[in-house]
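Title: Request for sanity check on 3-hydroxyisobutyryl-CoA hydrolase prediction

Description:
We are preparing a figure and want to confirm that the structure record we downloaded matches what your pipeline produces today. Could someone re-run it with the sequence below and paste the raw structure tokens into this thread? We only need the token string, no images.
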Amino acid sequence: MTAQVSSEASRADIQQQVLSEVRNHIGHLTLNRPAGLNAITLDMVRQLTAQLQAWADDPQVYAVVLRGAGEKAFCAGGDIRSLYDSFKNGDTLHQDFFVEEYALDLAIHHYRKPVVALMDGFVLGGGMGLVQGADLRVVTERSRLAMPEVAIGYFPDVGGSYFLSRIPGELGTYLGVTGVQIRAADALYCGLADWSIDSAKLPALDNKLDQLQWSDSPLKDLQGVLAKLAVQQLPDAPLAALRPVIDHFFALPDVPSIVEQLQAVTVADTHEWALNTAHLMQTRSPLAMAVTLQMLRRGRHLALEQCFALELHLDRQWFERGDLIEGVRALIIDKDKAPRWNPPTLDALDDGHVDSFFRDFAQIGK
């Protein structure tokens, strides 16, 4: 999921929310809600799932390309307003959404044909869930990647406990606990993307894909196309310079310790960054950050399927016990931007309460 949101789509245009076509043995899937930054709905999850399954079984489809309509976003996450309304109305859409979204994301991780994800513009929350299982993840200078869930009192799901926890050092912990956005150079540095291409070259990429002469290795064929237009490294990744201090601070035992040390300790010339990071974290849900930290540390030792199971275990408690509903109220419904987090401060966090979200899963995982 994500901190981004869109208005609910009318029932009449549901069939147009996902566009699909096959050209030159490539199945092209386009998220088609550009006005809503291509925020994903349950209907879109179901359409994507059905189309991917059909193409998996079609010998005339060799590969799949995922993209978002418009120039602003690949996908800014889940359509949070619809999930909020479902919970408030006593419906089950919010429960169904997570089960089916995670199944879709997992299916992309295990898809038996190459998947190319064109990550142009915002790739947030649920958008990250769609792309991180792809074989070839392509960013542009317009890309903005993040798992910003803690800003609305939630935790980075859609496989975040797996792909964030496997970023070198504590960079994934930093991204998950703070919810900050990164650009193309950092995405490559963190291993959250594989290639970077100038957005002006995307039409040329499509043209080359349309004219591709296939061999018996579709993945190598696609890599060959990208090698002519894209690069796999970019200079001056900001996180590369910050890596030592991030590894130091975000390896501390808990969130209050991290914030306290960010405020108190000066490391080289990173004091301003440390203070800004501490200030940002003090606006986030204390509970969401604490659960995220523990989730990521557990995720390092879990298989992909177990990570999704852990996130679903947390989901099933979160609407009742977590801060999501209050976060959506404050930032999206009432827009007063004054969420009343529970607990309200980091100092009020109770370790036992945080642990309780994981207790039953510890038994399941044995």
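Thanks, this matches our download. Confidence is low (pLDDT under 50) at residues 3-13.
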